[in-house]
Design goal:
mainly alpha, single chain
């Protein structure tokens, strides 16, 4: 069961990374790096079921409003 949740988390985070990458027009590696110290990442570690309850774009929108706001 744990492996299954880890796979779900990876797939979900991959969607978030792709959307960040697309919106900022940066590499996948850079997008992953940008996510490392965000509230999204901490929440995904502590409560993945809560995070994955929402569509990935919800978190991406939040990231851009809060975490990445200074980049715009």
């Amino acid at each position: 069961m744990k492996v299954n949740q880890d796979m779900l988390k990876l797939r979900y985070t991959s969607r978030v990374v792709q959307e960040v990458q697309r919106r900022l027009n940066i590499s996948e590696r850079e997008a992953e790096y940008r996510l490392q110290n965000t509230a999204y990442n901490k929440l995904m570690d502590s409560d993945p079921e809560f995070v994955m309850h929402y569509p990935a774009r919800v978190w991406v929108d939040k990231l851009f409003k809060v975490e990445f706001a200074h980049n715009h």
